[in-house]
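Batch job 17 of 40 flagged for manual review because the log was empty.
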Amino acid sequence: RSLQLKLQDAEIIKNRVPAIQYIAPRNAKGVFGGDKANIVRGQKTGSYAIYGDFPVYTKISTKKIYDGGRFINDEDIDQARKVCVIGERTQKELFDKDENPIGGYIRVDNIYFQVIGVHKYTPGGGFETDGAIFIPFSTYKKLYNTGNDVDFFSMAAYNDADVVKAEADVKAILKSEHHVDPNDERAFGSFNLGE
């Protein structure tokens, strides 16, 4: 059977695994083999991966945002704002060379989003590329009707924590919450940068 992570899993993990400092529920389109989002700006179009994120994500994977821009904040989440942070490549492909994209609009799967930031690509931080587009988790939920479903979690342990044990503890809790045999090693995939 397929397992579906839920938003409430984040709270359970945070409360029951003391080694976890930050946990960010994340949704993504066009990352794990699915279709990417269709992005349009004027006559220019492209297909890019879209992430639904919370502000806490930047505490786990630092995002360098170019001057004048910002990442998603709590108000964006609370109000499910149609705002986005685009990648360097996305900017190059959709905006003119000397044009400032901040405040401009792009269409994400036929919905207009205002650009609030451009992120610098940092290799080795996960699945993202220089074309990734980030939108508020709450807006992603409305746009793609995902309810409380979560595709995956990004987590950071405290500096002095045993990251291998923390990962095992998280998986044990998820197995328990989702009624998975404790010996099943394939139910939940993961990779551990700290390891």
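Reviewer: the log was empty due to a logging misconfiguration, but the result itself is present. The longest helix spans residues 163-177. Unflagging and moving on to job 18.
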